Predict the structure.
Amino acid sequence: MISLRNVGKSVPSGGGRAWILRQITVDIARGDFVTIMGPSGAGKSTLLSILGMLDREWAGEYFFGRQPVHALDHRKRMALHKEHIGFVFQQYHLLDDLTVAENLEMPLSYRDIPKPQRQSLVADTLDRFGIVAKKDLFPNQLSGGQQQLVGVARAVIHNPSLLLADEPTGNLHSAQGRDVMELFSRLNKDGTTIIQVMHSEENATYGNRRIDLKDGWIVQ
């Protein structure tokens, strides 16, 4: 599904370049559940941004299926991103002035989906995630765990083939974190490929693969 070849990223620093990622070469198969781990500053979130096609300033080759992401222009990359990728953030990134149902509908509105179909998808997702009773509430009326649940639901409402998660349990207490990881396990068993950045050794065990980074390198 994903093939990276000698991917690297650097930024200007003191008249030279500071490397964030170095010669990242890795293959990820469809159906994998991968955890990226490493100390702060190892390049984990940067790698996730490249995989999510949100970062354009890097070197190397990135194939998503048969698509050479490194050779696509911005418009084609964004089209590929919107069709295939869902993203879950540590900070939830829900819109405070929209209800739960409206937050779920928002990403569908960018995909030229007719309103009746959007409403049907929202209703199905609310039921699937057990949050029908929360549909008219605003984010500030939800607990942290509930907000992250809505964030995950929003990320997968368009049935992406790849779910990326950046420290999805970082702001949750342990029980809420386990709930999110159990949800990820179910999504993965249903066929969603998942790549998560994680500090928790316990939560890393939910995946079937682990990639360790240190100082921008993959540690064998």
Residues 99 and 138 are 4 Å apart (CA to CA).
